[in-house]
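Action item from last week, closing it out:
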Amino acid sequence: MNEVSINNHERKLSLWQKIRKKFLHLLRLTDDKVLKVYHGYGSRNEMILFGHVFSLSPLPRKRYRKNFWTNTLALLRSFMVVPVRGATVTLEAGGKLIETTTATDGFFRLDWHTEKVLPPGLHTVQVQLRKDGSGSPVIATAPGHIIVPHTNQYAFVSDIDDTFLVSHSATFFRKLYVLFTKNAHSRKPFEGVVKHYRLLANAHAGNGQPNPFFYVSSSEWNLYDFIKEFIRKNDLPEGVFLLSQVKKFYQVFKTGANKHATKFMRIARILEAYPVQKFILLGDDSQMDPVIYAKIVEHFPDRIHSVYLRHVYEKNLTNVRELIEKIEAAGVPVCHFEHSSEAITHSVSFGLITNLELSAYLVEN
């Protein structure tokens, strides 16, 4: 879960500063420094947490209306950000002060080793934004949450656009139309995908903890709040987000157009962090998921349980089938499906979801 907490020191504002703040507030923007912390992940001793620091960013959205201009302005605001470069971010863990500085795009990553073995579950730490350096006053704080899964659990890596969120990624103008005119409450998931993901989250999870989900996408961090709210609204499994580099306002029409090589690296880091878990990869055939997942299977033999690819793009079908054959030749089953009911049937037939779990879900829902 994303948390933002701003602690402003009392200061006298000039008339111009007051007018500016008022104007920004009307635009639903703030020029207060904001520390934004995302869900992190860890093993028993290694922890990873990341986030952003902004000096200009949107205020949290409170209302969701089916209004063209309201939704368009909300999307544009997501790209009205000014990252803070070189900001000092710290946290205390195990009696030690962990410190890092933000990159050019305001992004930070905190990695640390814990002497004490942490039990599986959700762990909370307090992250601080410092005024100048590690010994300077704290100007903002936010809790960070780290997921430590059980070693006997499955882990899931899922794309977002056209995997569970209807996005029309392969059609430029349709993609922009949906992005600009809809919101997290009016956008739709594919039929049956929530059922499939809820079943996967609880597959063989006899310890009471849901299986971890990692949402790895070429969508930018600008869209984090939108994606998180969409997942919450549709009761999809909560998870760790690994999105692409923040874009500026002038790049808004290039949203989603990122180098997919970084997506491979993000997935690879997750697998390296959990050398015991078996992973299931979920994506679609509209862009580069088949290529990336084939490379993951090649680089991490015996680590991938199965691959699920939603069929949404007809023109790329020949290449996709060749990549599926390559993955299957490595001993990894692939489900290339149009409807999530097919994916559920496949999951049951391969023992990923038990008949008992499916029956229990149907009774509860």
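Closing note: DSSP finds ten helices and 17 strands in the chain.
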